[in-house]
Amino acid sequence: MFALIDGNNFYASCERVFQPKLRGKPLVVLSNNDGCAIARSDEAKALGVKMGQPIHDVPPAIRRQLAIRSANFTLYGDMSARVSAILREAAPRIEVYSIDESFLDLTGIGEREAFARELRDRVHRWTGIPNCVGIGATKTLAKLGNHVAKDAVRKPGSYPAQLGGVADLAALSPQALAKVLAATPVGELWGVGSRWSARLRELGIETALQLRDAPRDLVLQRFGVVLARTQRELAGDPCLVLDEVEPDRQQIMVSRSFGQRVEDHQLISEAFATFAVRACEKLRARGLVTSAIGIFANTDHFRAELRQHHPQRTTNLPRATSDTRVVLDTLRRMQRGFLKDGFAYKKAGVWLMDLGRPEQIQPDFFAPSVIGNDKLMSAMDAINRRYGRGTVGLGATGWRVRPQWAMRQAKLSPHFTTSLRDLPRVRC
DNA sequence: TCTGGGGTCCTAGGACCC
DNA sequence: TCTGGGGTCCTAGGACCC
Asked: Is A371 exposed, middle or buried (0-12, 13-18, 19+ CB in 10 A)?
C-alpha cells in the first residue's frame, strides 16, 4: 500500500511561506532566465496561465494582474529537505521521488486516512507548504489518488466526500474506483504523456478505466512494457516498488540559456568553465568520479533568420577524476575550433558522463585509475559551503561579477532559509 | 524583445564474439 | 541441397518524469 504526498503548486507555495503578501494573489514562478511559467498558484491557473507557457505569451492584461517571481531553486531545495525530514520521521519507508513529491510505504498502518491527514497537517504547520495525499494499492493509483485529492480541495464535491486533501482509492468499492477511473482522462495518468495519450485516443482509449480494461497484449504490443506496467498498476497489480535508495547518477549536466546572445568566444569559454565547476561540485557531493566530458552550444533557435550553429563534442578521459582542474584542462582542449566566428550563441552546457564510484573503477596495473587531488577539492568545497558559493574558485571562470551571459533573474526573492543576509525580519 | 533545466528507461538495429 | 545458435555492447531515437 502506497501513499504519495505532494506539495501543492510547490514553488509558488515556497515563495508564499516567507512573503505573506503573495497569499491569495495570482502568483507565477518563472523558469531560469525568466522565460516560462513553471509554477502557478490556483489564482494564476484560474486566470488561464498555462504550465510551461512563455510569460511574454501571456496577454498583457492578464500579466498585469500577476505577481511574478524568478526561480529560486536554492529556496525550493531547502524547503523540500524540510518536508522530507518530516516524512522520514513519520514513515518507516520513504522514496523521495522529486523536489515536491514522496512515496511512502503504508504497509502495516491501520488507520491510513487518519495517518495521512495527520501527516498532511503536520507538514503544513511545520513548513508552511500546503499539500495533498493520495493512497492506493500501487504507485500509479497513489499518484491518481493525489490527483483526486487536489481536485477535491479545488472543487469540493468532485470526489465521493470532501476528504480534506486526502484520497484513499484503496478504501473505495470497485464500483466507486471505476467511477474515478472513468472520470480520469488517460493523459492525466502518471506515465502517459501527450504522445501516447494521442495514440491511445486513436484506439478509442480515452479514460483510465478504458486503459485498465483494454486487451493487455494490445497495449504491450503497441506501446511496450512501460505502458503495460501502468495498465497492470491501474488494475491494482504492483509493478513498481518503493525505491528507498536513490541510485547513483549516470550523468550530471549543467547548462544555461544566456540572458542575451553572446558572440565573444572568451566569454563563452568562461561560461563553460563556470558550468564545469558547478558540475564537478555536484559530482563530488555525490561521491562520484567522471570518465567522459561533453560540451554543447546553441545559437538562438527561436530566431530562424539568424545563422544557426549547434556544435557538440564529447571526450573520454584517460583516467576517471572528480578534480575540477582536470576537467577544465580537458575542456580547454575540447574547445579548440568548437565555436565559429560570426555566430551569436544563446545557450551552452557541460555534462559529465560515465560516472562511477572511485572504488568501483577497473584498476590499471601500471597507473592509478583515478587522478586528481581530493584534499584540495574537499577544502575548496568546504570553504564554499561555509562562506558561500564562489568564495574560492578557479580563474578560468572569468571571475566576473555579472558576465554578459548571466541569466536574467529580475524578480528573484531572497534566500530566506540559506543565507544569513537574507533572513526574514520580524517587526513588532 | 521575450521562449528552462535536468534526468531516466526502453527498443531496435548493427557490430562483434564464440 | 545445404546455409546455427546464442550472446553482449553500443548507439540513436523516442518516450516519459518533474
From this structure: middle
